[in-house]
Please model this.
Amino acid sequence: MSHPSGPDPGVERRWWPRALLAVGAVLLALVFGITTASVESSLGPHEARYDVTTDDTVTVDLGPLGTLQIDSPLPLTLGVRVTVQEIPASVTELDQSKTLQALSGDLQSYLQFFSGPQATVQDVARALVTQALERTALALVVLVAAWWLFRVLLGAARRAELRQQVRPHLRSGLAAAVAVALVATVLTSSLGQRDQPTASRPASAVFDGTPLEGARVTGRLGGVIDTYGGQVVAELRKNEKFYASANASLKAAWDDRADTLAAWPAPEPTASSSASPTPVDEADLVTVVLVSDLHCNVGMAPLIRTLVQRSKADLVLDAGDTTLNGTSVEQYCVTTFARAVPAGVELVTSPGNHDSRQTTKNYAKAGATVLDGSVIEVDGLRILGDRDPNETRVGAGGTALAGKESAQDEADRLAEVACDDGDGVDLLLIHTPAVGEEALASGCVPAQISGHLHKRYGPERLGLGVRYISSSTAGATLGQPTVGPLNGIAELTVLRWDPGTRRFVDYQLVQVRPDATASVSPRLRWPAAPEEPAPAGPRGTPSPV
Model:
């Protein structure tokens, strides 16, 4: 007797319980992974811990001050609790003079953060997603291991006996279990803080028109916000207005200069002329934008992006001191600068004495190539550099050696690396100018670019090469903060390099002033390297700035 062809009912009965169990296991692991994700990062000038919650609220816990709450933009009633660490006890006092004094030290740091919050938000979101996936995978592994251990401990005979007993109720039992788990998860996550009675009250109107509009506050934070929140918001708006105006000025200045260059071709250079380069095939030139001593002034990030785009740069060089004090809470600074560089444009940095291994690591994670004493190549330009031999920590004893190597040791090592490189080095990028003197004197490096002094020098012939010291792109001046509207002239430089001669051809100086105006110089000729060594300047530099 023949049997009709078709799927084996026994096989069909066997696979669906396992599939349902697998779905349930993945669901439980995913819920566990998401709701237990937690990362350490920063919020303004503070260390902070970010934990995923299911209360549909973003809560910033300021310890004894109270909390600030806003509706969460995350799906599925997910929220985040930000626990801010190291809140000074003096800040909880609402005495005007004491509280203002306690807050004033952090005001500029908060201004930096709110000038470029996207960097912190993106970093935290990426870290939370990564940890949620890791914890989900771990939970799934544990569930699978527990399942197989359970099977082994029961043994085949006992499993067969249990299977016979539960088979009549298997379908309804599994479905009910999964449904209960789903309902419990939804109910737990849906009962968020906005559904529960709280002692919070609407925040002051000072937040109107900001991302914190409509926020709820608890505890003493309300009094602090009412008293001092207006100062922070006013500074933020002043800062945004200044850099928006400066960016517009930069765009106009660059476009005006570009029109002038197009209408009036540069004359042939003479022995005494510093303007206009020797004619070359401009299509082959590598365009480089140079920044230095940014000192966490994230307000300049949009202007850096504008200049890179307008100049059609192939490469951005950062000559160091990207941060103020090299602390972990300055991660948002390096991330903001790295993401200001358009996709497809390389970013190379030589860390300065105000940077640290932690912030440099964060810079690399955000996309920067950090020089480490070896030669790298970008669009044919071979670059050598390393981190600064010193480190400066404000309020922690000033400047000291970052490691065992002195400035002279590093200078000797870099000169040796340059001279031993068979393919040749085109550029030494090093933060402190004096560290490059040995390499320039050796004739193994035709050009050096540095920062550190917050004052421009050159380009000038030194040794057997040419040295250019960039001023601060943050407009840094002695005793003045480098955040908020500029206190000094911020400078950036656009250079062009010829792969054929392996020499820089020309440069343009870009200046942004404290009145938000900007200027772009004509293309100035890069000096030819001397045939004979010139007398080197005194070793060392003024005290670190």
Summary: Residues 87-107, 186-198, 264-277, 532-545 have pLDDT under 50 and may be disordered. The chain has ten helices and 23 strands.
